[in-house]
Amino acid sequence: MASTSDIRKGMCIEWNNDIFAIIEFQHVKPARGAAFVRTKLKSVADGRVLENTFPSGTKLDEVRVERRKFQYLYQDETGYNFMNNEDYEQITMDEDFIESPKLLKEGTEVDILFHAAKNTPLTLEMPQNIILEVTYTEPGLKGDTATNTLKPAKVETGADVRVPLFINEGDLIKIDVSTGAYLERIKR
After folding, report:
1. CA distances to 68, 71, 179 from 111, in Å
2. Which of 93, 183, 76 lies closest to 131, judged by CA?
3. Could you read off the pLDDT of 74-85 as tens digits, one per residue?
4. C-beta atoms surrounding 153 within 10 Å
5. Domain that residue 103 falls in
6. Can you tell me the distance from the alpha carbon of 156 to that of 158, in angstroms, rounded to the nearest whole number?
7. What CATH number did the domain enclosing 76 receive?
8. DSSP of 110-164, one letter per residue?
């Protein structure tokens, strides 16, 4: 058990039947009334952000969370299969745990957060950006670099992405995983 005086950024707590990471906190001592701690909490499971105020001295259930590096192997009927980079143990995760499963390429390294006491996976964190090859798009035209017009393209994982007109089949592009948006073309 931890109290409000132990709160620190990055600490994980179990609250309202969910596990939250503290992303911001502020100890407040008003002129009148009791002290309290204003916090901003991010759910480890689904990423929603909540603001909550804890009265000073409140006991909190601290949860130890471990971040482990895994490599994506393949997808089959049981789910998405990952291998631990240290001990080569394999685990299978449902699509619900993955932020952008359509952008997951074989060999991609991801972080999986585990509840240390129960040794159960909580959530999967993809890299911020991923580089993929365009497998299909309409041909680009010379000189179409001045406008912000976008066209549909299909990448090697099967995901659909909107790209600028100058992108052609075979080009490598960098994609923002959280939004699925095109960022830039990568030179080979």
Report:
1. 6, 9, 18
2. 183
3. 999 999 999 998
4. 23
5. 65-125
6. 5
7. 2.40.50.140
8. EEEEEETTTTEEEEEE--SEEEEEEEEEPPP-TTTTSS--EEEEEETTS-EEEEE
Summarised one tens digit per residue, pLDDT across range 94-125 is 888 788 889 999 999 999 888 888 888 888 88
- φ/ψ region of 161 (left if φ > 0, alpha if ψ in -120 to 50, else beta) reads beta
pTM for this prediction: 0.75
Residues 69, 86 contacting (CB under 8 angstroms): yes
Question: Are 110 and 135 in a shared domain?
Answer: no
- First and final C-alpha spacing in the chain: 52
Query: Are both 75 and 44 inside the same structural domain?
Result: no
Last residue of a domain, one of 107, 125, 143: 125
Same domain, 69 and 113: yes
**Residue 162, amino acid:** R
Paired strand residues for 69: 111
